[in-house]
Prior knowledge:
Low-confidence stretches: 1-8, 64-86
Strand order of the largest sheet: 1-2
Distance between the termini: 37 Å
Oligomer: single chain
Order of helices and strands: EHHEHHHEEHHH
Strand content: under 5%
Shape: globular
Structural class: mainly alpha
Mean pLDDT: 76
Radius of gyration: 35 Å
Largest sheet: 2 strands, antiparallel
Amino acid sequence: VAYKLLPLTMLNRTVALLLAAISCSHAFTTQPSVPATRHMTELSAVAEDDMSGRRSFLTTVAAVIPAVAYSAPAFASGGATAGKYTTIPIAKRRYYGRVQEAVHEFLLMGPAVIQGDLTDPVVQDFFDVTKTVVVPGKKKDINGVCNKKDGDCKATDILDSRYNDMKTTMYLLGNAFRINQQKAPDNLPTVKAAKKFFKTMNLFERKVLKNPSKNDKAATALYAEALDQLDVYLDLVELPPTESGHYDKEFSTLVGESSRIT
């Protein structure tokens, strides 16, 4: 837990009020009349008592002021997955495009899967680890000049399947929808919904990759189940449902400049 310092003017005002209280407590104190012979002695004694009392009081004040000055807690956000109002917009900018593109390509499989045809290129490409550019390569040349000893300055893309990228981004996006940083990711409703979808789709993926056929009714049933599970997840991460028509277009998978739906 971090703590906020009170403004200097407020701290000065606190000290001034305390000192004023000390002064006032003595300003209105009346001393009884005493003979002139005892005046100097008693005055010295009063002065000593007065200074002793003030020193004791100021010592107490000095101990109390830091506690007062640091009494206002300022809770930190806790990193990338802790604060609801700071991390969710960032997660949306990072993952909304990739999740929406994955949903777009998932829905493109629909016509073929309804027929039970797992050999269709659209279905096969969704799970092909060489078809999707997950991280675009960066050129290694400097102002068009290659300084590499081997002369290889070509950009190298990192490839994977759209489904694998979908699993990664759905999990990361769902993990950001939290208001309690102490809660384990697997206990979040968004992550639970994502994992439920993954479980069904993993079974579907096995059918596509291991023994694809053109009339797999079991695969059709798995796809329909996964579709319903995906809608639950999309609602939790504030995205439109699959039947809204929102995913009829392609989406940019680059990090967006806005957390709004594109």
